[in-house]
Design a protein that fits this description.
Strand order of the largest sheet: 10-9-11-1-12
Structural class: alpha/beta
Radius of gyration: 21 Å
Number of helices: 9
Largest sheet: 5 strands, parallel
Helix content: 25-40%
């Protein structure tokens, strides 16, 4: 059987600004306050990132009962409900909120419109922490739909004031289909001025749409819990290209590349570039001889850190934070 000849890299791929910021918050909190730092839920949905932060002093918890009094607590990039925020404040933890600002924007919109009397339809995946966090901004009046079929059975208490919000990491195409069904059933529904699906999710999906027709197989680097990574694999498959998602290079199967001339490679927004490089090395070991990058959008978005994590007030020194492309084998 012939071996792969070329690897084509999607642009953009990998870390987005919200993920960069969330990881940096945990790293700086550890550097400034010392281990352990408690993090509610995985800071981002990537096994490698979480395991690395564990080795450096982060303890990941799901319940606030597992956080000792006086501890420093970080909320994950996915956001948390009002109940969790209030309980954490009541317990007196030192809190740093790593919620992606694009998720926070949705929370703010829900709070604002709820005061005006709106109910909400949320498009998203049941059980995903971002969905739980957004729906948890209210104690009633927000209804989840996961599929087009769900729109027919959703029963808001009233339809005069009804708005739609979405999970930020959905498939752009799936969300559009569900949104169309919502608008057909509730023509007066209020939709976001700018779609809630984040720029990074959209950009990575757009890149896969360009990549897939050029290659024989698509590999997505991402963890099973990563919504946006799963959407990339599904999108490539929907476009007619065989597609696999791997957490790391060890999960690559040699038979995926038999009879393949060109391999497309991308990574979800929570997957560090070091994992992409390891996958490239593994595919080269299976026979690939060249690597090229597609042309694509260059992302320049950067979100500010919370107050208290920028410069060490005691020493006046900037706290060094390692960035993903420079990471060694331990990251």
């Amino acid at each position: 059987m012939s071996k792969p000849q070329e690897i084509v890299l999607a642009e953009p791929r990998g870390f987005c600004a919200g993920v960069d910021r969330a990881i940096e918050i945990v790293e700086r909190a550890i550097a400034k306050f010392g281990a352990p730092i408690y993090v509610r839920h995985e800071i981002v949905h990537n096994t490698f990132v979480v395991n690395d932060l564990k080795t450096r002093g982060a303890i990941f918890i799901e319940e606030l009962d597992d956080v000792p009094p006086g501890a420093t607590l970080v909320f994950s990039a996915h956001g948390v409900s009002q109940a969790v925020q209030q309980e954490a404040k009541r317990r007196g933890f030192q809190i740093f909120d790593a919620t992606c600002p694009l998720v926070s924007k949705v929370h703010v919109e829900v709070a604002k419109l709820a005061k005006e009397g709106y109910e909400f339809i949320m498009i998203g995946h049941k059980g995903h922490p971002e969905v739980e966090g957004t729906m948890g901004q209210l104690d009633h009046g927000i209804h989840l739909v996961e599929e087009v079929e769900d729109v027919a059975t959703v029963q808001p208490g009233q339809t005069e004031l009804l708005a739609v919000v979405t999970q930020t990491t959905l498939s752009v195409d799936d969300a559009a289909a569900i949104m169309a069904a919502v608008r057909e059933r509730f023509p007066q529904v209020r939709v976001p001025k700018q779609q809630d699906i984040c720029y990074a999710t959209q950009n990575r999906q757009d890149a896969v749409k360009v990549l897939s027709p050029q290659v024989d197989v698509v590999i997505v680097v991402g963890s099973p819990t990563s919504s946006n990574s799963n959407r990339l694999r599904e999108l490539a498959a929907r476009l007619g290209t065989r597609a696999y998602m791997v957490d790391n290079a060890q999960e690559l199967q040699p038979d995926w590349f038999e009879g393949v001339a060109r391999v497309g490679l991308t990574a979800g927004a929570s997957a560090p570039e070091v994992l992409v490089r390891e996958v490239i090395d593994r595919i080269k070991a299976l026979g690939a001889t060249s690597v090229r990058s597609m042309n694509g959008i260059e992302e320049t978005v950067k979100f500010p850190l919370p107050k208290g994590l920028k410069i060490d007030a005691a020493t006046g020194l900037e706290i060094e934070v390692r960035k993903a492309p420079e990471l060694g084998p331990g990251r």
